[in-house]
Amino acid sequence: MNTFSSSTCKWGLSVLAAGLTLASCNTAQTTDSATTSSSPMDSTTTAAPAAPAGPTPVRPAGPAPAWATGIKPEMQTVIEALASLGGKPIETLSAQEARQQPTPADAVMKVMQANNMPMPPVTADTMSRMVMPGVKVRIYTPKGATGTLPVVVYYHGGGWVIANLDTYDASVRGLVEKTGAIFVSVAYRQAPELKFPTAHNDSFAAYQWVLRNAASFKGDPQKVAVVGESAGGNLAASVSMMARDKKVTLPKHQVLVYPIAGYDMNTPSYQKNAQAKPLNKPMMAWFFDKYLRTPADGKNPMISLVNANLKGMPPTTIITASLDPLMSDGEMLASKLKAAGVATKYQNFEGVTHEFFGMAPLVPQATEAQSLAAGELKNALMK
After folding, report:
1. Within 13 Å, how many C-alpha atoms sit on residue 160's CB side?
2. Per-residue pLDDT, 119
3. Most buried among 96, 140, 161, 321, using CB within 10 Å?
């Protein structure tokens, strides 16, 4: 029987997206919803120079922002780089304009360039497949893999409105390297062009497609998990709920990274981190406005996970960041899952912000968080 890779390279591959695809990120924000084009990563085969054993220390240029008491220096450096890219407040823009704004991944790239940080080798092959009209997936397979491998279905963030497969390519590659599993990253359709519950239904359709088609890309349909970040964490949990309710095979595990888990924007972390970067309270209100048909949708169990029936959900790992409006969402969801009898591991990472998870080359807490997620996935999928 094939087993997971034992690679433990702390540098990881989470910078590959920045180094090899994000140079054109701002002109390609909507390409992943198309039915044909693929990321440049899909055809990359040349290995980059060998990477160092761990993240290169970086230091911020100025004092910590008023909202960021206790921010880690590496995290602050990325936030400073993001500010220097001149993006406009998302909540003041149309969805189309917002999709063209600089991203945290662009900021990571800028810091790496400024510090002459090399790129790690490419250790995953990719290919694109269509699930249904308008819904594409990118399949990541560890290079040199043989036999049948477990599969993880991944859902990216962006408030159901912005971002795409390239924006979160970093997180996926980091997890592929640390687990040795096949990852299927889902490009669900976005709002406001298509509102709730389109992204949720697309996400469940993609999960079902993986169950039916895993063997075609050397995946094991009996060993499937789900992972999501932010809005993607909300989608991953909703997929698990839909699978439970529709009597479809449940994921073996779900990893929810700073998930949107409620519609209440007056939680302790929303109040404490109302002006945080790169995600703040006004942005979350903007995302809800763009995705939900009416405020009543905010009470739907697929949006307000903390008020949903959580019994029978798969074992869960929840990761949050202390400088994030969504920290309380994840904390409350973990508590509700435990109360419902679901095996749940929860860890909050201090001094980092929303989107830290994919920044392993720069932010040590991202390396720790990816290792935690990968370990829980391996434990679940190797049984």
Report:
1. 32
2. 72
3. 321
pLDDT, one tens digit per residue, over 116-151 is 987 767 889 999 999 999 999 999 999 999 999 999
| CB-based burial label for 196 (10 Å; 0-12, 13-18, 19+) | buried
Catalytic, out of 156, 200, 253, 354: 354
Q: Which CATH architecture has domain 16-381?
A: 3-Layer(aba) Sandwich (3.40)
**Cβ-contact 307, 236 below 8 angstroms:** no
Catalytically annotated residue among 166, 169, 202, 324: 324
Higher pLDDT among residues 331 and 58, named by residue: 331
d(CA 372, CA 365): 10
354 flagged as catalytic = yes
For residues 73 and 120, give the distance between their C-alpha atoms in angstroms, rounded to a whole number: 23
Q: Which of 5, 33, 230, 238 is catalytic?
A: 230
With 0.70 as the threshold, say if the pTM is over it: yes
Known active-site residue 371: no
Is 230 part of the annotated catalytic residue set? yes
